[in-house]
Amino acid sequence: MAISDKPANRRAAIPHNTDIGELFVRRFNVVSIYVGVLLLLAVAIVWSGIKTAEGVQQYHQDYKTLQDMKKQERNLQVEHQRLLIEQQTFSATPQIASRAVAELGMFSPTLKDKLIIQPGVATAQVPVVDTDSDEDKSDVIEPRAATDISPDAPITDATVAEAGQ
Length: 165
Prior knowledge:
The protein has 165 residues and is mainly alpha-helical. Helix content is 56%, strand content 7%.
């Protein structure tokens, strides 16, 4: 063999404490591939962390929204129950009468406000009670054009109700 600067056995020339990067540089001259893979792995790890943080943040926002909606649902259920109870209370007859008097100013008619129509009578006698004196006065009221007081007029529920008042 000829004497040269190169060692005869390549394995004997490489020291045992070299790392993989130096081997790649010496043998394949692929430093750029090694660095590219490491950069790609670093970017993937950072991207994975960012996506995980975004997912957790979205979960917390959705959970808070859900809790707010549940609270609103409970409040609406309580309001609905209260309105049902109020509806049942106001549908009672005494409650309707008291609200009619208080809110609408309605009142039960007195004898002075009632008019009794009898069939066959052309005029109706209405007693007028004067609060200043003890005597009863009667006013003559002419029949109205819309009221049929002829003896042949049919008797309906309206005429019976008017006669009963």
